[in-house]
Write a structure and sequence with these properties.
Layout lengths: L1 E5 L4 H12 L3 E10 L15 H8 L3 E6 L6 H16 L3 E3 L6 H13 L3 E3 L7 H10 L3 E7 L15 H14 L10 E7 L9 E9 L2 E8 L1
Helix pairs in contact: 3-4
């Protein structure tokens, strides 16, 4: 079955692509929405322009659509991008990295219904700690590019998801009730390397901005 992956470059969408390929789905393209709204309800924004480099090392075409990021109206742009992928690559299904957000999952499902496409959410309701452990076990190299919740601060930017990271977020989750995998918007990530990549991306620059408990790190890779 030919599929498109809704792709942000973060851990969930990349791991979803990995799982889909593992189970025999044909990934025909990636779909990325670039939002002008850093607080978009639907779309990941830190370092989103660097997904082009990820698509290159995955040897997959990338369908890109820009949006103003206005709540609900941004879904029109998403539907347009999925329709383009259907027209150009004859996709039969859309795969998402949704784990906890019913808001996101329900809206993508509605778009797929409108376009007569199937919708798969392989990570839906997966245990959060298990998700992080699976990423490490499958040799995903993932960097934190944004943090948006107490008690996280700018010292978390640039950290890699590994056993030490998992132990720390697990403890914070128990103490402060944050989502350990960032599914409540606590943090955002970018995948530097994984089994889908032909080579590891090299981090060549970074720019940090923010205050209090809201920080982001825009990165450049090659």
């Amino acid at each position: 079955m030919k599929c498109a992956v809704l792709f942000s470059g973060g851990k969930d969408s990349t791991f979803t692509a990995f799982i889909a390929k593992k189970y025999g789905y044909e990934i025909s393209c990636l779909i990325t929405i670039i939002s002008d709204n850093p607080d978009s309800y639907m779309f990941h924004t830190p370092s989103i322009l660097k997904v082009k480099k990820q698509a290159e090392v995955m040897n997959l075409p990338l369908v890109v659509k820009k949006t103003k990021g206005l709540k609900e109206k941004e879904l029109i742009d998403l539907e347009f991008a999925i329709q383009n992928a259907k027209n150009e690559y004859n996709i039969e299904a859309v795969i998402t990295g949704a784990v906890e957000s019913a808001y996101q999952a329900s809206r993508v499902q509605k778009i797929c219904d409108n376009l007569d496409l199937m919708c798969f959410n392989p990570l839906w309701q997966k245990d959060q700690i298990e998700l992080l452990e699976d990423l490490v076990a499958n040799n995903f190299k993932i960097i934190v590019t944004g943090i948006f919740a107490y008690p996280l601060d700018d010292s978390w930017l640039g950290q890699y998801i590994n056993k030490s990271f998992i132990d720390k977020v697990k403890n914070l989750s128990e103490k402060y009730k944050i989502n350990p995998a960032g599914e409540g918007g606590e943090f955002e990530t970018f995948v530097i390397n994984c089994p889908l990549f032909s080579r590891e991306l090299e981090l060549i620059d970074k720019k940090i901005s923010g205050k209090n408990h809201s920080w982001k790190m825009e990165i450049d890779v090659k």
